[in-house]
Design a protein that fits this description.
652 residues; alpha/beta; Spore Coat Polysaccharide Biosynthesis Protein SpsA, Chain A; Rossmann fold; ten-stranded mixed beta sheet; seven-stranded parallel beta sheet; 27 strands; disordered N terminus
Length: 652
């Protein structure tokens, strides 16, 4: 970045080397008039905090009379255009865009400093979604306070910088959302959209209201205007044009606001909310969306346990269905990267100590905006059920993930521990209370659906897939190239620990007698000491592994084993294995609740029978291929995205 040092007055500055690109993805256009110190700091911040993205910088000098006119002495590889006479901010921007080469044009005030990752985050969404025409940054003051988290325009034409002077770390400022406009201090626009809508309207020359106007024009042409909180830009507000509304360029803020009101009068009355009212909707343009509040024990760690994966998948489905989605984690913690994954989908998470103290106030305050509530798990749901029923008119959906009382009852049958029986009775009372109070009960288990309907015949009960997939995942390896057995399960769940210990103690030795070189892989987060102790030259205990590594493990092994002796609900490990085209050897618990599954899988509950099925399959490549094809077809039939959408639509 730094070249030779040169004099600037009595100070030394580093000659700044900007990366050059003949094919920039982004054209960063900085309109300037004097204020060289700010411009230089802005340029330094761009170079320091922008990596891996081809970009160009175009500095549009509106006839400055300071060192801006000598920018070439201080900076390399910057396109500097100097107006012969002062033309004004808006003309400067339009001229810069006309000579830009990027797929995107990004207007950046010279009184800004960008932060790490600012540009990558701006690009991440429009590169995936061509309907996004404009996207902008979170603006903060140098002292750390929030300047703007997207802009609001009310029906009278007055504009608000949402969140001004507040704490920028609050949850309401940290999720992706559609907004009325983005302030021009840091705003990125697709070049083809810019050309289509004609750039900034000369009607608003020399400056002000052009950023609001272009957002309305983009929407008029069918494009979305998006706020990206991960892109953070520090803005020294007032440096460019001052703060006096009665003099200089700043006086056009009032003049052009009236022009904007006259131009968009019909749209303002039709689409915008009354001044200062319904901020819940106004801040995210969600008036025409249904709002669903989803409550679970925590932000779903979707690559660590099956229940989290289910919650995460349905949160994504709600977004795809056009819902305004709010998520309340009972622990009020936003762990990373999982929290940001939700926020980047456009989901607001209620986290932090304030929400722990005031979540009841939040629900009551926004009661008129909440259309649906999805409660997850009985021990979490009972804390919120009565509050929601008392204060909101929301339709309440309850999803237990599995019937806990059945799981504990089965475990009692194995261990004969009186405390397990008491736990089963406790959960039965709790779950039946949730069934009775919910408007609709959701279950992923066919067998549990029959139990619920038998006890609550007048209750709407909907069977939905525990997971849904756009496609299955085939392997390219031949069966002769694959080796070993695979068990996958998070060990925060006791049936998984019991199952793998039982398998390695009572079943694996029988298999090893017939197939001495067979290898066992045990994958899953938080293995307890007993499971870690299984590690040997013929058993590998991986602990937690990311999805891409797990995918390779599925592709390298021959058979997925599901040796569960107790549990309830549909087992995610079974469905996941079948999605990867894996033959499955399982107990009856492992396929519990799966519709018509016994047409393709015969469960084995005795150690000898379980072992014998593995032995018969292991070297029979044609049979392995047949079983793998049956797995694929089953998942495509019962766990497709269209099936999940159909089921959820019937529940709402």
């Amino acid at each position: 970045m730094k070249g030779r040092r040169i004099h600037k007055g009595l100070r030394l500055v580093n000659k700044l080397v900007v990366p050059s690109s003949s094919q920039p993805l982004v054209s960063i256009i900085i309109p300037v008039y004097n204020k060289w110190d700010f411009t230089y700091k802005c340029l330094v911040s761009i170079v320091q905090n922008t990596h891996g993205i081809p970009y160009e910088i175009i500095v549009m000098d509106d006839h400055s009379n300071d060192l801006t006119s000598r920018i070439g002495h201080f900076v390399t590889h910057v396109t500097a255009i100097r107006n012969k006479v002062k033309r004004g901010f808006l003309h400067n921007c339009n001229h810069g865009a006309a000579i830009s080469k990027g797929k995107y044009v990004l207007f950046l005030n010279n009184d800004t400093e960008v932060t790490p990752g600012w540009l990558a985050h701006l690009l991440s969404l429009p590169e995936q979604d061509p309907t996004i025409g404009i996207i902008g940054s979170k603006l903060v003051y140098p002292d750390g306070r929030l300047q703007e988290a997207g802009g609001i325009v009310f029906s009278n034409g007055y504009a608000w910088n949402y969140g001004r002077l507040d704490n920028p770390d609050k949850h309401e400022y940290n999720y992706v959302k559609e907004v009325d406009y983005i302030s021009g201090a840091s705003i990125m626009i697709r070049k083809d959209v810019w050309n289509r809508i004609g750039g900034f309207d000369q009607h608003f020359a020399p400056a002000y209201s052009e950023d609001v106007d272009i957002a309305f024009k983009a929407r008029q042409h069918g494009y979305k205007v998006i706020y990206q909180p991960k892109s953070v830009v520090v803005h020294y507000e007032g440096v460019s044009h001052g703060t006096d509304l009665k003099s200089g360029i700043k006086k056009y803020q009032v003049i052009n606001q009236q022009k904007f009101i006259e131009k968009w009068a019909g749209v303002l009355q039709r689409d915008q909310l009354a001044n200062g009212e319904h901020l819940f909707w106004a801040r995210e343009r969600s008036r025409n969306k249904k709002t669903i509040l989803v409550i679970d024990y925590g932000v779903p760690s979707f690559d660590k346990d099956a229940g989290s994966r289910t919650t995460f998948m349905y949160l994504k489905l709600f977004v795809d269905m056009g819902f305004n989605v709010k998520f309340l984690p009972d622990n009020f913690i936003k762990p990373e990267p999982y929290g940001s994954a939700l926020e980047q989908l456009g989901i607001e998470i209620l986290y932090g100590p304030q929400d722990r103290r005031y979540y009841e106030h939040w629900i009551v305050k926004h009661k008129d905006y909440i259309d649906y509530v999805l409660l997850n798990r009985p021990n979490i749901s009972h804390q919120y059920m009565d509050l929601i029923k008392a204060y909101t008119r929301a339709k309440i959906l309850y999803y237990g993930h599995d019937m806990h009382y059945i799981r504990e009852l089965k475990r009692f049958g194995l261990e004969n521990n009186r405390e397990l029986l008491q736990a089963s009775e406790f959960y039965k009372r709790l779950e039946f209370d949730m069934f009775s109070k919910a408007d609709t009960v959701l279950t992923c288990s066919d067998s549990e659906k029959r139990i619920i309907e038998g006890n609550f015949p007048n209750k709407t009960t909907v069977l939905l897939p525990a997971y849904y997939f756009d496609h299955t995942i085939p392997t390219t390896k031949q069966w002769s190239e694959r080796n070993g057995l695979l068990f996958v399960g998070g060990f925060g769940h006791s049936p998984n620990t019991d199952g793998i210990l039982w398998f390695c103690r009572d079943i694996l030795p029988i298999v090893q007698q017939a197939i001495p070189d067979i290898h066992m892989f045990v994958a899953g987060s938080n293995p307890p000491p007993d499971v870690v102790g299984l590690q040997s030259d013929r058993v590998t205990v991986t602990g937690f592994i990311p999805d891409d590594v797990l995918r390779q493990l599925y592709g390298n092994t021959k058979i997925a084993i599901i040796p569960l002796r107790y549990g309830a609900g549909v087992k995610g490990k079974t469905v996941e294995a079948m999605r990867h085209h894996m033959p499955v050897v399982t107990t009856s618990t492992g396929i519990e609740g799966l519709q018509n599954i016994r047409e393709i899988i015969e469960p084995m509950n005795a150690p000898n029978a379980f072992a014998e099925q593995i032995i018969q399959l292991y070297h029979n490549h044609s049979l392995l291929a047949h079983k793998a094809e049956q797995s694929r077809m089953y998942v495509e039939t019962y766990f497709s995205r269209s099936k999940a959408l159909e089921s959820m639509m019937s529940a709402l």
